[in-house]
């Protein structure tokens, strides 16, 4: 999993202490055009601050802004940093600029699982829109999950005025307590969902109230129960195919891998390595020898499903306890199989 923040966020930024526990997965998108921290991995935008933007009231926000357009010019490179089958959680707040990475990445890679944790603008008379969650999910059909909280929830209604520092401290306590719950929920998702505050859990968008279970609301969740370190994966597809049309036959033929004369040898080598990996980690695993004869691509849906199974099982093993057998591709390819 990747966790994405910006250097411009008011709450979610590189200085937020909550992120320190997950530093292996954090990426800071530096919208101001320069690296802001050595603690986390940074993606630096090519934005250059112009002199006129230094004057109060001159800076433009939104998709017409210089910061947005600068990041847009390298958006493909930004998307490429996440891999094809990775979960990516964008943390945004009441600063509209914190949404730029999300807006530029959403929908650009159909293999990426995109998740959004959003906080409403800071308005004292803000009235939460009960249809907002549905609107955002419908607006972005590739969005896998949405956590949306009204900032007014953090106001003390008995106090006429509270400083932002007090509100921010209250927000920090809330997320420090519930962030592991949010991450665990995202990790276990199997369909598009939204975060439900009655049950403090993610609920499938299609099932609504039928899937709400309030029994675990009071359960304390102090730690995540999976290895958050990102895992690069392409399965059999090195890059997203360019389909001439969306006809099923065209899609199937476009995704069909090209056969090669040494494909059978590659298939056997990779199968043996999967078996070694399973044995080294005591993972129950059976793999029948491929009955295919003649040239093949070296991998197929059966191979990919076995690899996917092993990845899921490895995620259940603590990172420091996993065993990866040594594997020299060039040496393996020397021998006839």
Write the layout of secondary structure elements.
Elements: E1 2-6, E2 26-30, E3 41-44, H1 66-72, H2 75-80, E4 87-91, H3 100-105, E5 113-119, H4 132-139, E6 143-149, H5 164-188, E7 193-196, E8 201-204, H6 248-255, H7 263-280, H8 301-315, H9 329-333
Parallel strand pairs: 1-2, 1-4, 2-3, 4-5, 5-6, 6-7
Antiparallel strand pairs: 7-8
Helix pairs in contact: 7-8
Provide a short characterization of the protein structure.
The chain has helices at residues 66-72, 75-80, 100-105, 132-139, 164-188, 248-255, 263-280, 301-315, 329-333; strands at 2-6, 26-30, 41-44, 87-91, 113-119, 143-149, 193-196, 201-204. With 337 residues, it is of the alpha/beta class.
Question: What this model shows, in words?
Answer:
This protein has 337 residues and is an alpha/beta fold. The protein is 29% helix and 12% strand. It has helices spanning 66-72, 75-80, 100-105, 132-139, 164-188, 248-255, 263-280, 301-315, 329-333, and strands spanning 2-6, 26-30, 41-44, 87-91, 113-119, 143-149, 193-196, 201-204. Strands 3-2-1-4-5-6-7-8 form an eight-stranded mixed sheet, with helices on both faces. The relative contact order is 0.09.
Element order: H for helix, E for strand: EEEHHEHEHEHEEHHHH
Radius of gyration: 23 Å
Structural class: alpha/beta
State the low-pLDDT regions, or none. Answer: 54-58, 122-130
Mean pLDDT: 80
Between the first and last Cα atoms, what is the distance in angstroms?
37 Å
Helix tally equals: 9
Record field, number of beta strands: 8
How helix-rich are the residues, as a percent range? 25-40%
Report strand order across the widest sheet: 3-2-1-4-5-6-7-8
Largest beta sheet, briefly?
8 strands, mixed
Shape estimate: globular
Strand content: 5-15%
